[in-house]
Design goal:
OB fold (Dihydrolipoamide Acetyltransferase, E2P); Ribonucleotide Reductase Protein R1, domain 1; 3 domains
């Protein structure tokens, strides 16, 4: 690639996140005459790729492996054939980050939702009752992806009382240590300035349930009605699916945004590190327990249980932590034989301890 051509490619793709590091990764494919581009949408074996020459439609047949986590995804940087009918994507460049959840199928496969993401925006509607457990679940996946999470509380205008709104923000902040929680009204523009500043540096993915106001928020960030918007159902306040594919949009203030369809199920996928970061205060307390393998249930010298008794830790947080840890262990155990054996051994040990406790209790009664 000549210096002038490289410069034109850089200027054309820079708004989509192209940098010197990506150029270095692409160098071997440049000698083959392939074009660099970023996937802005994937649909049934086809994808739209933005290149220096514009948006191209390409087939992904050459890069469709058996591993569902390696399929072409919105946000991927790829090498595309310069011509041909059909035109093919030849390879994906190594991902820097990837947002992955487990599917709802009994096969418990992973599903990649977005690639090369810097910020994971979890949109939560203040028009509905807060589900803190679901927020913690989203944040665990966000931390695990390698992106920086951000919770955006949408439809803040529907909670006009500032005291009530402040309490809701505080509830979320207590469930999201180390994460910025930002109340926003896309309708009136409140809170958007700080959000625009955050997303202008890199790639952001917008996540949340249907009805969370993601499409309205995306339109506000883009400055145009690029996403369809529908009102929530009056009967139950739940949303309708308006976004059906994952779309990558360039933002006028810099950065790019990947808007995703509403997620009904948010299953963990090998997210041990992410769970630990969401519940960092519990992980810190656990280091002070008398036993290194403390289950925080009834063990003597448990610092976690002591924190609950003193009121320093909410019992809801511990229940949520236990739930996500167990779920993540089950997912990992399906592909890790050693972990399966360890879990069976642990279950047998706890069963034996419970049986011994019951027998001792009966003995005392006699």
């Amino acid at each position: 690639m000549t210096s002038s051509h490289a410069s034109s490619v850089f200027s054309a793709l820079a708004p989509y996140g192209w940098d010197d590091a990506w150029a270095d990764e692409f160098a071997p494919y440049d000698t083959e005459g392939l074009l660099p581009g970023r996937v802005i949408r994937v649909d049934r074996g086809q994808c739209d790729v933005v290149t220096a020459g514009g948006v191209l439609r390409a087939d992904t047949a050459f890069v469709t492996p058996h591993d569902p986590l390696r399929v072409v995804c919105t946000g991927d940087w790829v090498a595309v054939e310069p011509g041909g009918t059909p035109r093919y994507v030849r390879t994906c460049l190594p991902r820097r980050t990837a947002f992955v959840r487990s599917t709802s199928s009994k096969r418990s496969e992973g599903q990649i939702l977005a690639a090369n993401v810097d910020h994971a925006i979890v949109a939560v509607s203040l028009a509905a009752e807060l589900d803190l457990g679901r927020i913690e679940r989203f944040l665990a996946l966000a931390w695990e992806s390698g992106a920086q999470p951000l919770v955006v509380l949408t439809k803040a205008d529907l909670v006009p009382d500032p005291v009530t709104r402040a309490h809701l923000v505080q509830d979320v902040e207590l469930s999201a240590p180390g994460v910025t929680v930002l109340p926003v009204s896309a309708l009136h523009g409140d809170g958007l300035d700080l959000l625009v500043t955050t997303v202008s540096g890199g790639t952001s993915v917008l996540l949340g349930q249907s009805g969370a106001g993601k499409s309205t928020l995306a339109n506000a960030l883009v400055g145009a009605d690029v996403m369809d918007v529908q009102a929530t159902r009056d009967a139950d306040g739940k949303g309708r699916h308006t976004t059906t594919t994952r779309n990558l949009l360039a933002l006028p203030g810099g950065g790019v945004l990947i808007d995703t369809p509403g997620l009904r199920g948010v299953g963990l996928w090998d997210a041990e590190t992410g769970v630990g970061q969401v519940f960092s205060e519990i992980e810190e307390l656990a280091r002070r327990c008398r036993f290194h393998d403390c289950a925080h249930e009834a063990e003597p010298g448990c610092a976690v249980l002591a924190a609950i008794e003193s009121g320093a830790l909410a019992e809801r947080r511990l229940d949520s932590y236990r739930k996500l840890v167990r779920e993540n262990q089950r997912i990992v155990a399906k592909t890790d034989a050693r972990l399966r054996a360890e879990l069976r051994k642990d279950w047998k040990r706890r069963g034996a301890e419970g049986k011994a406790a019951m027998e001792a209790k009966r003995g005392r009664r006699r």
